[in-house]
Amino acid sequence: MMIVALAKDYVPVSGDFSRQVGDDEWITVPADEKGRIFKLRQMQGDRRAQLLIAAAEEESARSLAAQFCLWVASVPNRRFYATYRFAGLDHQWPVMIENIDTPAQSIQTDEKNLTLLVVDIMLRESIPLFRAPKGDEPNDGKGDGSPEDPNGYPYTRVIRITDEVVGTEMQVDDTYQVPIFGGGAIAIANTDDALTTLLNSTMPSHNL
């Protein structure tokens, strides 16, 4: 028998490995048929776990522990995915086993026909924090406002008109602080910097 337990504490990963994404990033989900725009933050942390191996015979417990250590030593097995549910979709985010040296330590008991071995594991997990508009925030009305079918953030349509004599002009037809997709750039609507970024781009624009 094998039992897995996770620690309650949480430790952010060190800066030399990765960084926490604390600011909201605009995203769309390719599998979302409604094409909604959401916000996303990401945290990465280390979580301690323990694997308990229990068997009636010492040889059986040792064999299970040895096979598990061999399984962890294989590179493809040190990475798996955790499922997070958002907007009616399952999102797969990676979890990595950090320590490849996993000795199995014996736990003494008063039972003569029971052998217990414990393996300490360190998991490094990436956790998404999705965000959709709240009830009083502007939204696109594409959902029903529930966690399973949230509304997305409204977006600004960018229309680019090219004239051989005058040049290129751009018209923005919205008033929300939302992302503009166009001209090969992503910016925020209704700011001079956003329009400057888009107008200075030479890539073709895309209408959402």
UniProtKB/TrEMBL annotation:
Region (Disordered): 130-154
Recorded superkingdom: Bacteria
Bias type Basic and acidic residues, positions: 133-145
Name the record gives this protein: Uncharacterized protein
